[in-house]
TrEMBL record:
Organism field: Roseburia intestinalis
Protein name, as recorded: Sugar phosphate isomerase/epimerase
SUPFAM superfamilies for this protein: Xylose isomerase-like
Lineage of origin: Bacteria, Bacillati, Bacillota, Clostridia, Lachnospirales
GO molecular function: isomerase activity
Gene3D superfamilies documented for this protein: Divalent-metal-dependent TIM barrel enzymes
């Protein structure tokens, strides 16, 4: 059975102190989750600019960087399904990356895309593939899997034929580079997420799940609503088919990461609502 996890970025506003973090992690367990996905920049003291940028994007990191997350997740009985890192950090501080993975007892390190990067530029994307292969090979020697996490910008055409995500799949070594597939972002980009998932096959080691739809909270001026993230089963994505495909591919974990459009602006109420879908379609602990 795949682990059901929550991405730590959802929890920034409700893990600012040890007491709040314990309360939030217990709420996750009570809802049926048995895993968590950590971010390196959230388990370590976070630079002010990083906190400012993530808050501006609607996903504040909070002030939990000084907490003992290894102790907290162990006491809660949660497994760490992966650790999010940036590629440059892995390359510059390889030994530190290995130590961090060992500290949290995880065998997966995930790169969450590239920043200030042009996915339409074939030269840049080709170089990225080379870097992924090299970093993945080094991590493999340490017993750690390197996974790549997508957003929507990878679905831009890189050569007039393939989009950048297809190019990355084709030009990375399956032995050294796997994928944490996020189905929300290709859907947002107008791409069939199920087709991409089938293309990945067993290279998809983790599945990031979210739903996409609308949440009407007040009257609107026009008949056009703005689509956004929403709780699982409340949107218009075919999550049943996507979950079925993910499980048939043998994913290790299904990881919830909804954005800022939460019920009553509460990430806890949001992951509790989404847990009902996951418990039905992924299974109960």
């Amino acid at each position: 059975m795949a682990i059901k996890a929550v991405q730590q970025i959802m929890l920034g506003t409700v893990t600012g102190s040890e007491a709040k973090a314990k309360e939030t992690l217990q709420a996750m367990v009570n809802a049926g989750y048995n895993g968590i996905e950590l971010n390196s920049f959230m388990v370590n003291p976070t630079p002010f600019m990083v906190r400012l940028l993530t808050k501006a994007a609607g996903m504040p990191t909070g002030k939990g960087g000084n907490l003992d997350w290894a102790k907290l997740v162990k006491e809660a009985g949660l497994s760490v399904v992966s650790l999010h890192k940036d590629l440059g950090g892995i390359e510059k501080e390889f030994a530190k990356t290995v130590r961090e993975a060992e500290k949290y007892n995880t065998t997966n390190v995930v790169i969450t895309g590239m920043y200030r990067f042009d996915y339409r530029d074939k030269t840049q994307v080709t170089d990225l593939c080379k870097r992924l292969n090299e970093a993945g090979k080094k991590l493999k020697a340490e017993g750690i899997n390197l996974l790549y996490h997508n957003h929507n910008y990878e679905f831009q055409k890189v050569d007039g034929r393939q989009n950048a995500y297809e190019y990355i799949i084709s030009n990375t070594d399956p032995e050294y580079v796997g994928f944490e597939f996020d189905s929300y972002w290709p859907t947002e980009a107008g791409v069939c997420a199920l087709d991409v998932m089938k293309m990945l096959g067993s290279r998809m080691k983790l599945y990031h799940i979210n739903d996409r739809g609308t949440k009407l909270t007040k009257p609107v001026m026009t008949p056009i609503l703005k689509s956004d993230s929403c709780e699982l089963g409340y949107g218009n994505m075919n999550l049943e088919a996507l979950c079925g495909q993910a499980l048939s591919s043998g994913v290790e974990a299904v990881v919830l990461e909804s954005h800022k459009n939460w019920i009553d602006k509460s990430p806890i109420k949001s992951f509790e609502a989404s847990a009902k879908f996951l418990n039905e379609h992924i299974g109960t602990v």
